[in-house]
Amino acid sequence: MGAFHHEQRYPVLTTKVDRKSETFRGNREAALKALEEIRGHVAKAHEGGGAKYNERHVARGKLLPRQRVELLLDRDSPFLEVGALAGTGMPGETPGTSVVGGVGRVSGVECLVVASEATVKGGAITPMSMVKTGRLSEIAEQNRLVGVSLIESAGADLPNQDKIFVPGGAGFRSLTQRSEQQVPTVCLVFGSSTAGGAYLPGMSDYVVMVKEQAQVYLAGPPLVKMATGEETDHEELGGAQMHSQVSGVSDYLAEDELDALRIGREIVAHLDWRKPSRPTLRPIEEPLHDPEDLLGIASADIRIPFDQREVIARIVDGSRFSEFKPLYGQTMLCGWAHVHGYPVGILANNGTIFSESANKAAQFIQLCNQNDIPLVYLQNTTGFMVGKKYEQEGIIKNGAKLINAVSNSTVPAITIMTGSSYGAGNYAMSGRAYKPRFLFTWPNHKIAVMGGKQLAGVLDIIQRDAAAKKGEAVDEQKLGVMKAMTEKGIDAQSTALFATARLWDDGIIDPRDTRTVIALCLSASYNAPVHGTTSWGVFRH
């Protein structure tokens, strides 16, 4: 009887995917090509400062930053990396910037792990690594994740101090606020940590320093001599032994790097960390439909729509989906499912957002909040419908209702960009500005106010109207060049790689990994209390 009831509550999604179709094969080939490009950039990011600086680092008897992370984490623990390609293609930045960060398990506890990429400018903080560190701090704060910092940092990248100094203080503020909220940070210091790098251990709850390697001071010996005339050496000024025996900045003196990692794991273990709330997990069922198909389902050309039901069928448990209002507002799919046993409410675009779609989604968000159910947004939309008819029907007030619901919802939200994200559709489907707990994209993702061709066309109309008002002839050649340049520029700024480099998302993922990524995000989210709200702003009717 119980099994029958379970079947009735969660109907199984069927599929219409034709793996032999030209569209499917073309999408798959494009996806594989895009993933190959992304892997190339990721490999570059994993090189850190490059062979020369990696060899120099290892020659000093040190572990590389990613080795430190791997040895800190539990054996076989997943590592949900965030901002892996931050800074890619940006002037003065290296792929991934000078920080490695993400969520992984340490002594059985989900932690936010941050490691200085010491082979890149000595781990100095660049403008983009500051933004990335800020995003990592936000993840720790939103999800109440214990922090483990693996530090070896030269402080601010001085040539860029004007871009870093003032906003950079927020990172230290975040550390102290998390401590006040009883979310500790464990700091392991592996090398020289100067100026801003010294405040990181200074404001952490637990500090471990590696003997004869860690050097922590606000100003190094040369600057001290210049400022005060005092002559001193690195060890007596800020060595690990001194800080462990004299200043008290260090709580533990590690014999070597492996010992520091052992101590860090021991500290996390004795926190006796427990999740404050946990849902009633369902038995985990693999999707009935093959996630491999996602490569052929997602459109390489975002102008070509695809059915998000096919996506949902490949990421939820048992391909089971209980759809809400299936006959109303059909360009917005809403319904309940489970991912790795966790309950979720899913909102997915199946086209442009109409008034009915917005109204349905707003109600669905309220229902999920009423029952403390996390939300998963699958974005693929050109935005809200425009035109006289739709304006008169109240698309603005109905769109505002949805954005109100998204803004004030308090259950965890996880956003996956599966296609286009244009205009206010980005806002309505919990884009970056709406602070979803996590936000990842597929390689085919495009994001902008509107498409390059549309934006160039709008500018064309404006230029022609302006010329007509002045009674001037249009310079067709000049206008044509402007349109071509505008379209090319907007298209270049709309790619998934452009967006992820600027941390408009938390990373580009292989579509086949979507189910796993969502599950890891859900698990991390439950480190904080999961409570919905019944308090909303004014809904205009």
Task: Summarize the structure in words.
The protein is globular. Strands 1-2-3-4-5-7-9 form a seven-stranded mixed sheet, sandwiched between helices. It is 43% helix and 16% strand. Helix 14 (355-370) runs parallel beside helix 16. The chain is built from 21 helices and 16 strands.
- Report the major sheet: 7 strands, mixed
Distance between the termini: 44 Å
Give me the count of strands. 16
Total helices: the number is 21
State the secondary-structure class. Answer: alpha/beta
Order of strands across the widest beta sheet? Answer: 1-2-3-4-5-7-9
Cα Rg: 26 Å
**Spans with pLDDT under 50 lasting ≥5 residues?**
1-8
**Which geometry do the CA atoms define?**
globular
List keywords for this structure.
seven-stranded mixed sheet, 16% strand, alpha/beta, single chain, 541 residues
Describe the SSE topology.
Elements (H helix, E strand, L loop, with lengths): L1 H8 L12 H25 L4 H9 L5 H8 L6 E3 L17 E8 L2 E8 L10 H17 L2 E6 L9 H20 L4 E5 L2 E3 L1 H7 L3 E5 L4 E3 L3 H8 L5 H5 L1 H8 L4 E3 L2 H14 L23 H4 L10 H5 L9 E2 L8 E8 L2 E8 L5 H16 L4 E7 L6 H5 L2 H14 L4 E10 L2 H4 L9 E4 L4 E3 L3 H19 L5 H17 L3 H6 L12 H12 L16
Parallel strand pairs: 3-4, 4-5, 5-7, 6-8, 7-9, 12-13, 13-14, 14-15, 14-16
Antiparallel strand pairs: 1-2, 2-3, 10-11, 11-12
